[in-house]
Automatic annotation (TrEMBL), chain A:
Signal peptide: none annotated. This is Nickel import system permease protein NikB. One of its GO terms (molecular function) is nickel cation transmembrane transporter activity. GO terms for cellular component: plasma membrane. The complex is composed of two ATP-binding proteins (NikD and NikE), two transmembrane proteins (NikB and NikC) and a solute-binding protein (NikA). Residues 99-300 form the ABC transmembrane type-1 domain. Keywords: Cell membrane, Ion transport, Membrane, Nickel, Nickel transport, Transmembrane, Transmembrane helix, Transport. NCBIfam families: Opp2B (NF045470). It is found in: Cell membrane. The chain crosses the membrane at residues 9-30, 103-126, 138-165, 177-196, 231-257, 277-303. SUPFAM superfamilies: MetI-like. Belongs to the binding-protein-dependent transport system permease family. OppBC subfamily.
From TrEMBL, chain B:
The complex is composed of two ATP-binding proteins (NikD and NikE), two transmembrane proteins (NikB and NikC) and a solute-binding protein (NikA). Coiled coil: none annotated. It is found in: Cell membrane. Belongs to the ABC transporter superfamily. It is an enzyme of class 7 (translocase). One of its GO terms (biological process) is peptide transport. The keyword Cell division does not apply. It catalyses: Ni(2+)(out) + ATP + H2O = Ni(2+)(in) + ADP + phosphate + H(+). One of its GO terms (molecular function) is ATP binding. Residues 3-252 form the ABC transporter domain. This is Nickel import system ATP-binding protein NikD. Keywords: ATP-binding, Cell membrane, Ion transport, Membrane, Nickel, Nickel transport, Nucleotide-binding, Translocase, Transport. One of its GO terms (cellular component) is plasma membrane.
C-alpha cells in the first residue's frame, strides 16, 4: 500500500509538470498574443505598439520560451503559480474562488450518473437481449454520442424557454443546478450503464454464481451482492478515468450555462492567452485527476480482497 | 426412497441439432446411501447433477421426473425449488477456487445460507459458521479469510461446510477430489465419509467421480454412465467383482489418470448417437443386433442391471 502511494505520487508530479509544460508549449506557438487581447479587453481600445511592448516587458513575455518555462518552474518551487495577466490576482486564488462551483456541478453529475446508470446497467445484464436491454443499448449509444453543448442548449430551450420550469443560467439554488447537472451527467451515465452491463454479464456466467444459486439464495442477493460486488471492481477503475471526461465536460457545460466555475474562467483565459492561469489550472487539474485515481485505487483495494492480500504480504 | 429419477432427458439445442446430454436416465437413491456416478468425460454426469437441482441454463430442455421424497422437483415452482436448494439438497462443485466467491469471506459465504434458510440473525449465523468450519477441519479463526488465502484442500473443505450448513438430506458432490494432491484427496474422502455415514441418521450422497478408487472407498452402489445413459448399476462390490457391461469392464481395466477414457475409440458425439447401442462401435463383443436395436436395461440379479443384450 505504501509503495503504491509513493509510486503514485512520483508519477503524479511528472504528469502534472508535463501537462502544464505541454499546454504552455501549445499556446506559446499558437497565433495570438496576450498583450493585445488583454489590453483591448481592459481599455476597450486597440492597443498601440508601445503599449504592447510595455505589457510584454512588464510580464517577461518577450523572453525565450525555455527561459519563461524555467521562470515558471522557479516560482513553482517557491509554491507560487504567478498572477493572472487579466485580473492581476494570484492564480491560486482565482482557482479556489471558482472551484467550489465546479466541484458542486461535478459531484452532482457523478452522483446522478451512479444513481441512474448503475441500477440500469445491472437490470439490463439480468435480462440480456430483452426488450429493456435493447432499449437501454440504443439509449446509451445515443447518450455517449450527444455533444454536451447541443444537449445543454436543447434542455435550455425545452425546460426554461418553452416550459419555463427551470432557470437558463446562473448559480445559487438547486433549481439552477438541474440542467447543467443533467447535461454533464448524460454521457457519463451512458458509458457507466454499458460498463456495468458488460461487467455484470461476465460475472453472472461464472462458477460462483452457480454456487450461489445452488445455495438457494434469492435472486436479489445473487445479483446485488454476489455478482455486483465483483462486477464493480472493473467499473470503479473506469469511473476514475471518467473524471477526466467529467472535467472536460464541465468546461463546456459551464460555458453553455454561464456556470461560474473554473471551466468558464479557463476558457476565457485561453481566449486571452492568459498563460499563468492556463498553466496553473492545468497543473491543479492534473493534480486533482491523479488524486482521484489514487482514491480509486484505494477503493479498488477495499473491493477486491485479492489485491488487499497481495498488498499485505 | 429419497430420490427417484425416471426417464430424465436433458437436450441442449445447438446449431447442429440436439445435444442429448441425458437420454432417459433412471436412478434411485435410498436414504443414508452413497451412490457413485462414474463414466468418461462428457458422458453427462455433471448435467445430471445440475438437472436434479434445476441449475441448468435455460437452453436446456429437461423432461422426465425427479422425485425427491415423493415430490417432483421438475414440476416445482421456482420459488419452492429455491427453498429446496441448500436446505434439502446441496451441491458441491468441482474446482472450489472458481466456485467460491472471491469477494466474500468464507464465513460470510457460510453464514448467508443460514440466514436465508434458517432465519438466523447475523451473530448466530457467524457463530454457527465457525462451528461448521471446525467440523470440516478448518480452524474457526480463519472465518474471515477469503478463498484465495486458502489452500486447495481448505477451499474444498469450505465448499463442503457451505453444503452442510443447513443439514441437507442429500449431498450432490461433483468430483470433489479432482485436482487435489493425493494426501489431500484422502482427507477429503474421509471428511465426506464422516459427514454422510458418520452422522445419524446417515445422510445420502450422489458422488460424481472419475476416480474409481474414491468410488470404491465411499459408495454403496455404483451407476455407470455412457453417452447420456446409465449402462450398468449395482452394489459397488458386486459391480467391481462382476462387471457385466463391456463398457464397465473396460472402465475397470483402464487407468484412472486418463480422464477415464476406458477403451479405444472416441466417445460418441451426443448429437449424432450411433443407432442401436451407443457403445457398439467401440465394443469388442458387438454383434449385428447391437447396431440396430437399442438395448433395454436387464435385471441380472438383486439390484444389478445392465443395458446390454449379451451381458
Ligand atoms: N450448457 C450447455 N450447453 C450445451 N451443451 C452442454 C452444456 N452443458 C453440458 N453440455 C454437453 O453435455 C455433455 C455432458 O456434459 P457433462 O458436463 O455433464 O459431462 P461430464 O460427464 O460431467 O464430464 P466431465 O467428467 O468432463 O465433467 C457434454 O457433451 C457437454 O458438451
Ligand atoms: Mg462434470
Amino acid at each position: 500500500m505504501r509503495r503504491l502511494l509513493i509510486q503514485r505520487l512520483v508519477s503524479a508530479v511528472f504528469v502534472m509538470l508535463i501537462a502544464s509544460f505541454l499546454s504552455f508549449l501549445l499556446l506559446f506557438y499558437a497565433p495570438g498574443n496576450p498583450a493585445e487581447t488583454i489590453i483591448r479587453q481592459q481599455s476597450g481600445l486597440d492597443p498601440t505598439y508601445a503599449e504592447i511592448e510595455l505589457f510584454m516587458k512588464r510580464h517577461d513575455l518577450n523572453r525565450p520560451f525555455l527561459v519563461q518555462c524555467l521562470q515558471w518552474l522557479y516560482l513553482l518551487t517557491h509554491g507560487k503559480l504567478g498572477v493572472s495577466l487579466r485580473t492581476g490576482e494570484p492564480v491560486l486564488e482565482e482557482f479556489t474562488a471558482r472551484f467550489g462551483a465546479t466541484f458542486q456541478l461535478a459531484v452532482a453529475a457523478m452522483a446522478l450518473s451512479v444513481i441512474i446508470g448503475l441500477p440500469i446497467g445491472v437490470f439490463a445484464a439480468t435480462k440480456p437481449n430483452s426488450l429493456f436491454d435493447h432499449i437501454i443499448r440504443v439509449v446509451s449509444l445515443a447518450g455517449v454520442s450527444i455533444p454536451e453543448f447541443w444537449l445543454g442548449l436543447m434542455l435550455m430551450l425545452c425546460f426554461s424557454l418553452a416550459l419555463g420550469w427551470l432557470p437558463c443560467f446562473g448559480h445559487g439554488t438547486v433549481r439552477h443546478l438541474v440542467l447543467p447537472m443533467i447535461t454533464l451527467a448524460v454521457g457519463i451515465t451512458a458509458s457507466l450503464m454499458r460498463f456495468v452491463r458488460t461487467s455484470m454479464l461476465e460475472v453472472l456466467n461464472l462458477d460462483y454464481i452457480k454456487t450461489a444459486k445452488a445455495k438457494g439464495l434469492r435472486e436479489v442477493v445473487i445479483v446485488w451482492k454476489h455478482a455486483l460486488k465483483n462486477a464493480l471492481i472493473p467499473v470503479v477503475t473506469i469511473l476514475g478515468t471518467q473524471v477526466g471526461h467529467l472535467l472536460a465536460g464541465a468546461v463546456i457545460v459551464e460555458t453553455v450555462f454561464s456556470w461560474p466555475g473554473i471551466g468558464k474562467f479557463f476558457v476565457d483565459s485561453i481566449y486571452a492567452r492568459d498563460y499563468p492561469v492556463i498553466q496553473g489550472f492545468v497543473l491543479i487539474i492534473a493534480a486533482i485527476y491523479v488524486l482521484v485515481n489514487l482514491l480509486v485505487d484505494i477503493l479498488y483495494v477495499y473491493l477486491d480482497p485479492r489485491v488487499r492480500y497481495e498488498g499485505r504480504s | 426412497m429419497l430420490l427417484k429419477i425416471t426417464n430424465l432427458r436433458v437436450y441442449f439445442k445447438s446449431a447442429d441439432g440436439f445435444v442429448k446430454a441425458a437420454d432417459g436416465v433412471d436412478l434411485e437413491l435410498y436414504p443414508g446411501e452413497i451412490l457413485g456416478l462414474v463414466g468418461e468425460t462428457g458422458s453427462g454426469k455433471t448435467v445430471l447433477g445440475l438437472a436434479i437441482t434445476r441449475l441448468l441454463p435455460k437452453t436446456a430442455a429437461v423432461s422426465g421426473e425427479v422425485l425427491y421424497r415423493g415430490q417432483n422437483l421438475l414440476a416445482l415452482p421456482e420459488e419452492e425449488m429455491r427453498k429446496v436448494r441448500g436446505r434439502q439438497v446441496s451441491m458441491i462443485f468441482q474446482n472450489p477456487l472458481s466456485s467460491l466467491n472471491p469477494a466474500l469471506s468464507i464465513g460470510e459465504q457460510i453464514a448467508e445460507v443460514l440466514r436465508e434458510h434458517q432465519g438466523l440473525k447475523r451473530k448466530a449465523a457467524w457463530q454457527r459458521a465457525g462451528e461448521l468450519l471446525e467440523l470440516t477441519g478448518i480452524p474457526a479463526k480463519w472465518i474471515r479469510s477469503y478463498p484465495h488465502e486458502l489452500s486447495g484442500g481448505m477451499r474444498q473443505r469450505a465448499m463442503i461446510a457451505i453444503g452442510l450448513a443447513c443439514a441437507p438430506s442429500l449431498l450432490i458432490a461433483d468430483e470433489p477430489t479432482r485436482g487435489l494432491d493425493v494426501t489431500i484427496q484422502v482427507q477429503i474422502v474421509e471428511l465426506l465419509h464422516a459427514v454422510t455415514k458418520g452422522v445419524s441418521p446417515p445422510r445420502s450422497m450422489l458422488l460424481i467421480t472419475h476416480d474409481l478408487g474414491v468410488a470404491a472407498a465411499l459408495t454403496d452402489r455404483l451407476a455407470v454412465m455412457y453417452a447420456g445413459k446409465i449402462v450398468e448399476y449395482g452394489r459397488t462390490g458386486e459391480v467391481f467383482r462382476n462387471p457385466r457391461h463391456p463398457y464397465t469392464r473396460a472402465l475397470l481395466d483402464s487407468h484412472p489418470s486418463n480422464g477415464l477414457i476406458a477403451t479405444k475409440g472416441f466417445s460418441p458425439s451426443l448429437i449424432n448417437l450411433p443407432p442401436g447401442c451407443s457403445f457398439h462401435p467401440r465394443c469388442k463383443k458387438a454383434r449385428k443386433k447391437c447396431a440396430h436395436e437399442p438395448p433395454l436395461v436387464q435385471r441380472i440379479g438383486m439390484d444389478h442391471g445392465v443395458r446390454c443384450f449379451y451381458a
